[in-house]
Amino acid sequence: MENILVAGANGTTGKQIVNLLNESQYFNPIAMVRKEEQQEQFKAKSIDTVLADLEKNVDHAFNNVDKVIFAAGSGGKKVKEVDENGAKKMIDASKNTNVRKFVMLSSMGADNPEQAEDLQEYLKAKHNADVYLKNSGLDYTIVRPGTLTNDKATDKIELQEKLNKSGEISRADVAQTLVRTLNDDISSQATFEIIKGDTLIGKALEPVAV
């Protein structure tokens, strides 16, 4: 079982990621949260937790961590502190502890934030974090979904390095895509966009397999 540290575990998408990992026979989730009261929901399911704040030092969270999923977000309130600098802290700590893979939940539009009509500051922060990860020397996958919805999972997506169109996707399908990219034979040093589609997630990920 590989230990997977999930930053942003208390978020809407993060909770789904942790649950998927917990159901997996390959992965053991470590839910990284900021507040003690956020730990209870995970402890009730016997899921490992760690207290760490992305605005502070996070090095202590990396005890016996094999891989990382960064699914944290400030909700637009602290994009520089959390979405950018928080991600960079996680990347640095991953390098220092020889984490084997870093999976980044980014956003469609992060490749060209200045072209966005809104959310420019958020997309700039995501862009800077993505570039930092690409230059880190870590094995990584950067997943850039379209607009997130709370719809049920379809287990199907449309995936391209660049889709050249906008679209929606459920958080459930995003969570499943992120978890699947943890596998060693999937999407190493890859960046791609996803929206809801007609291709099974496992099949859609095959073109970016190593």
Summary tags:
single chain; 210 residues; Rossmann fold; nine-stranded mixed β-sheet; 6 helices; 32% helix; globular
Summary of the model, kept short:
The chain is an alpha/beta fold and 210 residues long. The protein has helices at 12-23, 36-43, 79-96, 120-134, 171-180, 201-204, and strands at 2-7, 27-33, 48-51, 67-70, 101-105, 140-145, 147-149, 156-160, 168-170, 190-196, 199-200.
Descriptive notes:
With 210 residues, the chain is an alpha/beta fold. It has a single domain (2-208), classed as 3-Layer(aba) Sandwich (Rossmann fold), CATH 3.40.50. 32% of the residues lie in helices and 25% in strands. The strands form two sheets. The protein has a nine-stranded mixed beta sheet with strand order 3-2-1-4-5-6-10-8-11, sandwiched between helices. Strand 2 (27-33), helix 2 and strand 3 form a beta-alpha-beta unit. Helix 1 (12-23) crosses helix 5 (171-180) and helix 3 (79-96) runs parallel beside helix 4. The longest helix is centred in the middle third of the chain and has 18 residues, at 79-96. The two termini are 21 Å apart. The mean pLDDT is 93.
Q: How much helicity do the residues have?
A: 25-40%
At the fold tier of CATH, the topology name is Rossmann fold
Shape: globular
Order of helices and strands: EHEHEEHEHEEEEHEEH
What is the number of domains?
A: 1
- Major sheet: order of its strands? 3-2-1-4-5-6-10-8-11
- The residue-averaged pLDDT reads 93
CATH class: Alpha Beta
User: What would CATH call the homologous superfamily?
Assistant: NAD(P)-binding Rossmann-like Domain
Low-confidence parts lasting 5 or more residues at pLDDT below 50? none
What is the β-strand count? 11
Main sheet overview = 9 strands, mixed
Instruction: Give the count of helical stretches.
Output: 6
What structural class is derived from the secondary structure elements? alpha/beta
Q: What's the N-to-C terminus distance? A: 21 Å
By CATH, the architecture is named: 3-Layer(aba) Sandwich
Assess the beta-strand content as a share of residues.
15-25%
Calculate Rg over CA atoms.
16 Å
